[in-house]
């Protein structure tokens, strides 16, 4: 492999494992000499850019007795080969992507070998071999001129001698309502059933994570095969989701609370970055416990904007509060429960009526509303947060995102800057939810008691997150 060009040398010199990377590139050249190195600027999902090395070429695919060439490009991260490449199809203008289990609408390729990447067991040579095998099972391209014709032969007839150029990936701008639920057990199952009942989904993927202690339900779903539901144990099945719900927990037998939470953080480290790469435009909805901490962890590990990583938080309590005020106390105003999902959570009310079209706001703390809210809280006592009720709450949040409803939910979100909070913590706050994620309502001055509870939560959560290896 010719690595002598000035551009390639300049970029390669910045790679953290330069000598190992060069050795791997030479191995690739020996097995796949058509994969040529070049340089380029890759734009990540958070809009940051980096100058990287990429491999561009064709891979040979056998389909029903005939041989064809499929155009691909592999972006090599600067920690290559210890991190997997980002793999893309490169169709010509008269070709389009056939979305499937291993390819999303933008042409990004997802394979078990990428998800389970572990150098030196993993390598690009092994990855390309796996890619060829998957493409032979299900060719990922179709011809733009064939209309309804799904026969891969109409495309493969002209890709057999395809030449590589520097054109980008072309695809249909097709949006499907795909939701993925990550984690089995009662809450995972409750979320699946509630989302199916409430939301108009085109596809719902249920992934039972092997390392999670909240297992179960996936086998029953496979046995009884519900419409629109795909059961998988491979995170790559979540690719292209609009909403990714994470219910997985990994409780350990450790004695200290920090150690117990750390097991969940370690579980997340193996799944959250992959979920973010598989669905870079999704809203990630966290329901693992403790929800405020795990939402914070998911945001850090995913590198997604804070508006697109939220936790189920106090949404259930907020819906119950509004119901009690409306039905039991004849007070027809919006209300939410905010703060940490603990004994320190506090109720707040809006001046806006339940049926108003005006954007809601939070009423500044006043003594007049406190007796009413305290009474509502007393009525809500002992209702608990059972799996089925949390599942219904998750479905309600998911529906607001899928339908761009712009409804105000109290969800766990980055609270820094709200109401004078200076620390980087996640708390439940009223947020308007739509297809692009969450927008917080403006912060207000709370009454002394409520403000004190919020500050105590900020201190507690800050101390806990500082002790975790995120």
Main attributes of the structure:
alpha/beta; Ubiquitin Conjugating Enzyme; Rossmann fold; L-2-Hydroxyisocaproate Dehydrogenase, Chain A, domain 2; six-stranded parallel sheet; four-stranded antiparallel sheet; 13 helices; 17 strands; elongated
Topology at a glance:
Blueprint: H1 6-12, H2 18-31, E1 36-43, E2 49-63, E3 66-76, E4 86-89, E5 95-97, H3 112-115, H4 124-137, E6 141-143, H5 153-159, E7 178-182, H6 185-198, E8 203-207, H7 218-224, E9 229-232, E10 243-246, H8 257-278, E11 283-286, H9 291-302, E12 309-311, H10 315-328, E13 333-338, E14 346-353, H11 370-380, H12 387-402, E15 407-414, E16 426-434, E17 437-440, H13 448-466
Parallel strand pairs: 7-8, 7-10, 8-9, 10-11, 11-12
Antiparallel strand pairs: 1-2, 2-3, 3-4, 5-6, 13-14, 15-16, 16-17
């Amino acid at each position: 492999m010719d690595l002598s060009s000035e551009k390639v040398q300049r970029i390669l010199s910045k790679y953290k494992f330069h000598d190992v990377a060069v050795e791997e590139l030479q191995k690739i050249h020996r097995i796949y000499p058509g994969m040529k190195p070049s340089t380029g600027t890759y734009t990540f999902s958070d809009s940051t850019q980096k100058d990287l090395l990429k491999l561009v070429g064709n891979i040979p695919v056998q389909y029903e007795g005939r041989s064809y060439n499929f155009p691909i490009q592999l972006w090599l991260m600067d920690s290559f080969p210890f991190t997997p490449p980002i793999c893309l199809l490169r169709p010509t203008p008269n070709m389009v992507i056939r979305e499937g289990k291993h390819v999303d609408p933008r042409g990004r390729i997802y394979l078990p070998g990428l998800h389970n990447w572990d150098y030196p067991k993993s390598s690009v040579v092994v990855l390309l071999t796996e890619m060829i095998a998957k493409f032979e099972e299900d060719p990922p391209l179709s011809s733009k001129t064939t209309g309804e014709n799904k026969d891969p032969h109409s495309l493969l007839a002209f890709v057999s001698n395809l030449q590589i150029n520097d054109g980008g990936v072309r695809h249909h701008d097709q949006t499907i309502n795909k939701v993925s639920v990550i984690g089995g057990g009662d809450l995972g199952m409750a979320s699946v059933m509630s989302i199916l009942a409430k939301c108009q989904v085109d596809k719902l993927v249920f992934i039972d994570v092997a390392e999670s202690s909240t297992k179960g339900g996936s086998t029953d779903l496979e046995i009884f095969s519900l419409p629109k539901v795909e059961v998988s144990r491979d995170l790559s099945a979540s690719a292209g989701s609009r909403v990714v719900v994470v219910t997985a927990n990994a409780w350990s037998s450790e004695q200290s609370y920090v150690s117990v939470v750390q097991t969940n953080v370690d579980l997340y480290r193996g799944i959250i970055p992959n979920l973010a790469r598989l669905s870079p435009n999704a809203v990630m909805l966290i329901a693992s416990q403790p929800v405020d901490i795990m939402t914070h962890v998911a945001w850090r590990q995913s590198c997604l904007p804070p508006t697109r990583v939220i936790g189920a938080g106090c949404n259930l309590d907020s819906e119950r509060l509004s119901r009690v005020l409306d039905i039991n106390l004849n007070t027809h105003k919006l209300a939410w429960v905010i703060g940490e999902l603990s004994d320190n959570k506090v109720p707040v009310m809006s001046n806006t009526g339940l049926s108003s079209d005006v954007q809601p706001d939070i009423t500044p703390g006043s003594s007049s509303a406190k007796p009413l809210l305290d009474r509502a809280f007393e009525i809500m006592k002992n209702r608990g947060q059972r799996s089925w009720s949390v599942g219904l709450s998750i479905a309600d949040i998911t529906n607001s995102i899928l339908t761009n409803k712009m409804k105000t939910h109290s969800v766990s979100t980055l609270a820094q800057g709200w109401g004078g909070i200076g620390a980087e913590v996640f708390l439940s706050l009223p947020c308007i939810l739509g297809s692009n994620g969450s927008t917080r309502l403006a912060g207000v001055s709370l009454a002394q008691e409520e403000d004190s509870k919020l500050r105590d939560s900020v201190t507690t959560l800050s101390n806990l997150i500082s002790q975790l290896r995120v």
